[in-house]
Fold this protein.
Amino acid sequence: MNRPVIAYLALASAVLGWAISPIFMRVLADEYDPYTQAFLRYGSAAVILVVISSIWFRPGLMEAIRRPKDTIGLALLNTTMQTTWTISLYHTTATTAQLITKTQVVMIIAMSYFLYHEERAVITSPRYIIGTILGFIGVAGILMDDPANSMLPQLNLAALLLLFTSVCWSVYAVWGKHIVRDLHPVPMFTVVAVYTSTAFAINMFLFGDPSTILTGSGNMLAFAAFSAVLPIAIAHCAYHYAQRHLGSAFCISLMLVNPAITNGLALLLWADESMNLIQWGGAAILTLGSYFVVQTQRRVTS
């Protein structure tokens, strides 16, 4: 299997993993505080990745350990981003969280244009620009949960946290692509996950309630560990791999389909995830914009 095919499969797994991530997190919110939840999920992912990297990526793991300037910096950024992302899901729905964070697309496109020359042919294409604009129109439509009273989302605590998360994620994505240019994404993110888990452990003891790990349900503890496999361990490594071969702007633009996937699955669990007719129209426009982005990337690559 050639690299472009693997990259597309990796991107698809990242899209799915991050689409279901807020659903897992919202379920766990009933059992754990945000700091304990973050530690459990990232700690589980770190254990999985350390085992995998020690067996199949040992030289890359040693190289990642010898580059603390990159990995520790990325881990601190990841810790900040994941903390605000997790807390926000205690104050809003999974679908809304996905939608607001799509503002990261504009920031990543701008950063990629100035930092990566190979991205410019895709980013400056009219079809790409139209696709991205359609994506944001779709996001705006989905955010109209009560168009009779307001055409804009309320700027509450959750919205502010999610907007800040978008900024952090934009830097994380572009910085991550820079690191994996000469370092395999699996051992790279393994080290980042270990550092991130350590930071989350500190947060948990300072601000959370670690006793819930022992007193809580064993099934929920297993669920927390399971929720770390695809959304964290696989998705982050897959996304960094896809970025290296497909470009930052293309990968993040395709993530515009996440809210539609999240909403479809979340509706099975929570009634407040339902959307009105305008929101469904926005979801359709968002999907169309993402399709334009995919087609543009393929044509430019060819």
Remarks:
- The longest helix spans residues 3-28.
